[in-house]
Each structure stands twice: as C-alpha cells, then as structure tokens.
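Database export, one record per block. Field names are fixed; values are copied verbatim from the stored entry.
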Amino acid sequence: MAKGLQAIRGMNDILPADIAYWQYVEEVLRQVVDSYGYHEIRFPIVEQTQLFARTIGEVTDIVEKEMYTFEDRNGDSLTLRPEGTAGCSRAGIEHGLLYNQIQRLWYMGPMFRHERPQKGRYRQFHQFGAESYGLNGPDIDVEHILLAARFWQALGIMDQVTLQINSLGTSEDRARYHKDLVAYFEQHQDKLDGDSKRRLYINPLRILDSKNPEMQSINEGAPKLLDYLSDDAKFHFEKFMLLLDHHGIQYEVNPRLVRGLDYYCLTVYEWVTESLGAQNTVCAGGRYDGLVEKLGGKPTPAVGFALGLERLIELVKAQQEVVLTPDVYLVLVGDAAERRGQELAEDLRDQLPGTVILSNCGGGNFKAQLKRADKSGAEIALIIGDDEVEKEVVAVKYLRAERPQEHVAIEQLAEFLNEQSLG
C-alpha cells in the first residue's frame, strides 16, 4: 500500500478544534490595534533573498542556517520571508509611504524558518507585527508597549507575561562597546562554544544572546552596553522608563537583552513568560532607525514589534476555553419540513446577521437529529415537522437551559430569537 502523504515536518495543520482560538485571538488583536489608529498592510510571502541578507545581517543564524531560499526559473534567488519588518519597510519605500510621513502599520501572517521543530517553534509559524515610521521620540516606543499590554489584558494573560527592556544605544555607542566586548571574550576564548567563536570578530553582540547554559557565566561577566551609552541614548532610555513608570507598566532592565537582527538600535524589549518552557519569548521588538536608509530609502526613524501567534494561543488556551458553536440548530423531520426549514434558515440569516444557524442535512429521525443538535453545542433547537409546517410554527427546545419547550409562530421567530441574546 502506498505511503500516505503527510504535512512537512514543522509545518502544521490548524484543525477546526483549534481554529476557534485562532479566530478569537486574531479578532482581539485587530480590534485593539484598530483602536490605536494603525492600518493593515499586506506584503508577499516571497521576497528577493538580498532583502533579508542586507537587513537581517549576513552573519546571523537566520541568514546562514534557517532561511528557505531557492532559485526560480529565471535564476533569481528568492526566500520565504523569515520575519516581517524587512518586507514591511521595503513595501513602504517602494510605494512612497515613508519619506517625510508618519505611518502606523500592522500585519499578520505566516513566516518561515528552517529550525528544529519543538513546542512553540515551528518551520511555518505565524506572527502579528506593528511598525511605526517617522517618529523618533521614546513616546512611540511606549505606545507600542501600551498596545501590547492591552493585548494581554484583553486576552486575560497579563499575569502570565513580564516585560524586559534594554538599550542598544547608537551605532557609535556599539562600536566603542564592540572593541571592549571582543577583548573580554578573547580572554575567555577557550571557553567559548562554536557559535560564539564564529561570531567573535563579526557580531560579538550576538554572543550575549546565546541560549547555551554553559555560556551564561561568561556572559554575566561581560561589560554592559548600558555603560557605553551616549548622552542622547541615555536620555532616550531614561525618558522611555519614566513614561513606562507614569503608565504603571512594570518592567525589568535586562542588560543582556539584545536582538538577533542587525538593524536594531536604542530601545529593545521582550515580553517573556515562564509558562511555555524554553520558548519563553511571546513578543519582541524595539527601534531600528537605520533600516529604511539601509534599504535605499531616506533616513527614517522606525520602531516595531512582532509576537508569535502559536505561543500566544498556547497561553490563552491555558486560561480559557474558546469554542465555535452554532446558536441555533434546525431539526427537520419530513420532506415538507426539510423544504420549509431550509427556506426558514435563509430568512433568519437575512434578518439576524451574526447569528449562526445550522440546518440539519442528510435526513435522520427525530431522535438522531436531536442528538446532532445537542452535540453541535447550539443553545436552541428549532423543531419543524409536518404539523409545524401546516400550522406555520416551530417548536423551540432549549438545549443549555432548564426551560420548558414552547411554540413560536414563524412570522415572529426572528424577533423571538433576537430577544434571546444568543451567542
């Protein structure tokens, strides 16, 4: 027998039982971000490989090991997007959205990285991202923090996440820091792991981001970038913290917090959790004022964040149950009832937009259909048989409440259901 086809490892199906959580979380995100005046942008899943090599950095795990890159029929090197900021910025430059303008944008969709699949980390994963362009003060950085905090509050997980912050300073600050950091790691070169040795002279800041437990004690003794900040960078970070304090946002300063992508500067932050094991980052972001210019645009201040939907949904699942169920199930017994019931279902959908009405199909006796109605999770079963068709009424059976069955005239049914506050 032929071997059955299966999904690619690390690229998962999202089944109907889980879709309820996805739709719920996505709708909450949309409602919150809309309330802040952000506009949705959609850009391709596939981009030129050079876009990511130029923005993310040649010497990063993403570019070196994780990108899904291929040549198309024209011989062009293309890549499935591993993150959203580069594509968002490219689209903004290409369509003239950024120069001398203020833009608040958001996006949502799949990203792709060839990593070892594990819980909370997949090869096809989904991100929600928010990006702001044209604003250089720490107030917009704080707005992004407030935006994310409102997500957590709306989803009931505020007590599950902690905010960690740091500053990467300016490029000049990092150049001075780079020299001393390399000198420090050279003194411990015999204790560096393979990845750290490879990054030592090219991107030593990434060594601080190592997840290898054996590197932690070495990293703890490394010089701190916060000690190298210029006056302007210090002012930005201090005002950022003052604004967070003003809004009552609790945070921890983590001097080892860096970003895995080369284009970040000044403010960086992560929302982390202890509820997801090793994959503890739920949301990460910061400022990247040099990115637009790096891509060929005019100098434009920018800040943004991205959150992983799979990890966010895992947190929501632990806090509440979300299911998709119909409001009403039509039990139709007999040929005349089937014809009249389907017609009635269409009328109700016209009159009650937003009400989910599931009409029995495939026949079945009264008992079998009532079982289906109960299994569907509907609050009410509307029962129509030959007698009901003749009298132009329906029998209303309450499936989730201790209430007696009653009859309602078909012409009054929409008004009756509207009064039941279904959903």
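Remark 1: The chain is about 40% helix and 20% strand.
Remark 2: The longest helix spans residues 16-35.
End of record.
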